[in-house]
Each structure stands twice: as C-alpha cells, then as structure tokens.
Design a protein that fits this description.
By secondary structure, this protein is mostly helical. Helices cover 76% and strands 1% of the residues. Helix 4 runs antiparallel to helix 10 and helix 7 packs across helix 8. The chain is globular.
Length: 302
C-alpha cells in the first residue's frame, strides 16, 4: 500500500481509540461527525471515494448511487444527533441497539460482496476497500457495541395509534419491503429503476450498503412510535427528511440538469422517494403542534 493508505487507516484507528473508550457523549459526537463527514464526501465527491477503492472505471451510475449513499449517511447522522439529546433511556437504548445490529449486517454484506465480486474486471474492490471501508465498518461496530453493553437502563416503549405514530408506521412498512427487495434482488430492482445501465459489482455493493442504512432507518421509524416525547419522534422524522430531500434533489438534477436519467425512470424514482418525503413532512409538522409528553397525548391502539 502507499503511504497515504497507511495514514488513512492509522487515522481511523487513532480516532477510534480516542473516542470509543471515552464517554458515551464523546463517542456519539465522533460517530455523528464522522458519519456526516463521510456522507457529505460521498454526496459531493463520490468519484474520489470510490475510485481509490476499486479497479476499473467509475461511471455516472456509480456516482449517482454513491450520492444516494451520501444522502443516507447524512440523514442518519442528523437523526443520531437529535436523538442523542433525548432524556428518555429507551431512545438511547434503541439507538445503540439498532446501530450495532445494522453495523453487523453491513459488515457481513461488505465481506460477502468483496468475495463475490473479486473475479470481476469491472466493479472489483481492491485492498484499499479492506483497509478503509471494511476497517471503518469494523471499528464503527465495535465502538457502538462497547457503549451498548454499558447501558443499564433501556427504558420501555408504549405503542400508540395517533396520527403521528401512524405516519411513522407507514414509513416502516414502505421502506422495509422496498429496501428488502433492493438488498436481496439488487440487480433485478436495478433493471426496473435504472434500466439504461447494467449493474456491476460496485453498483451492487454501494446500493446494498445504502439499503442497510435505510433499513435501519425504517426500524427507527417503527420503534419511534413508542417514544414518550413528541420531540423524539420529530427527531426520527428529521433525519429521514434530510435523507429523502437529498434523494429527490439528486433525481430531479439527473432529469433536468445532467440528463443522465431518462424521464420515465426518473419519474418512477421521484415517486418512490417523493412519497416518503411528503409523509415525513406531514409527520414532522404534525408533531410540532404537540408540546405535551407522549403519555398525555397518545392513545393506546385497541
């Protein structure tokens, strides 16, 4: 490896050691800053972050999916930042539980894709993928696991059936089914949403990485229905607003400005991303009208 590659890996390890064994607040801040920074990087300069980790040529579809991944990471970072301020132990407990589980799934998927597409000439990951992305995923999982096992009070959730909670449930069902299909049948779904370009190993890997993060976000929507404070529910919505807002912007940019997306394909992608955006806008502003605690405002489903 080149000296720069060693420095990148060393920086990841040093940042992990300095924050993972500190207080929960320090780790969460490092987690949020790191996730948002990498997300912003994938959104603005996906070509650079993908090129040094793979063999072959980076095409427009790689950049497009890479920016989707960046928007997902930024949305997750915003949600984590807002939820990290909660005084409800159930919120913090679920935050670390789902984040740790998501990291484990992500790690397994990254290893599997690295082995599955190792023989491809185009879209094949190189050793930089191991010492940057894979190493980062391992450290991210271990850091969250360290702080998860230190939690002694996981609080409790009480599910209700207010309009706010139903918005969150709708998001969970929508994304759980859609993203499950994208993760399991990545190439087949790609032929529907982006039929103008074939998927290679890199397309599949980045798309599935984004899928895991969105899937964890959908589970957050489900558990957020049991959070006691409306502000915590709004925090879960805000992260998804950032995520889906970035999706819609990218799709419209590809249709109108760069002309990289055919109109019919772009219209389909706009609908699949735009509907959740409208749902979250409704949920976010609906919750802003409620200032009382969860127990005083929600009703129990019968």
């Amino acid at each position: 490896m080149e000296v720069v590659a060693y420095l990148r890996s060393a920086a990841l390890v040093l940042a992990f050691v300095a924050t993972a064994f500190s207080s929960r607040r320090v780790w969460m801040l490092a987690d949020q800053v790191g996730l948002f920074t990498f997300g912003l990087g994938f959104y603005l300069i996906p070509g650079y972050l993908l090129q040094f980790q793979t063999n072959g040529t980076i095409d427009g579809l790689h950049l497009f999916i890479g920016r989707f991944l960046g928007g997902t990471m930024m949305g997750q970072a915003v949600m984590s930042y807002k939820l990290g301020k909660s005084k409800d132990p159930a919120v913090i407990g679920m935050l670390f539980t789902l984040r740790t589980a998501g990291c484990m799934v992500l790690l397994v998927m990254m290893i599997a894709n690295g082995l599955l597409f190792s023989g491809e000439q185009q879209g094949q990951w190189n050793e930089q993928y191991v010492w940057f992305s894979l190493l980062g995923a391992v450290l991210w999982m271990v850091g969250n696991l360290i702080h998860l096992i230190q939690i002694r009070d996981f609080g409790g959730l009480t599910m209700g059936c207010t309009r706010m909670e139903n918005h969150l449930r709708l998001d969970f069902f929508w994304h759980f089914v859609l993203i499950f299909m994208h993760i399991v049948f990545t190439k087949e779904m790609g032929s529907i949403t982006m039929p103008h370009k074939p998927f290679d190993g890199l397309h599949v890997s980045v798309n599935q990485t984004m899928g895991v993060l969105v899937l964890i976000g959908s589970l957050f929507s489900l558990v957020a229905t049991g959070f006691r404070q409306p502000e915590d529910k709004r925090s879960a919505c805000l992260g998804s607003l950032v995520m889906h807002g970035s999706y819609v912007f990218l799709i419209l940019w590809g249709i109108v400005i760069t002309k990289e997306q055919p109109f019919q394909t772009g219209l389909f992608n706009t609908v699949t991303s735009g509907l959740p955006l409208i749902n979250f806008l409704s949920a976010y502003f609906l919750a802003s009208k409620t200032k009382k605690s969860y127990r005083s405002t929600s009703t129990v489903c019968s």
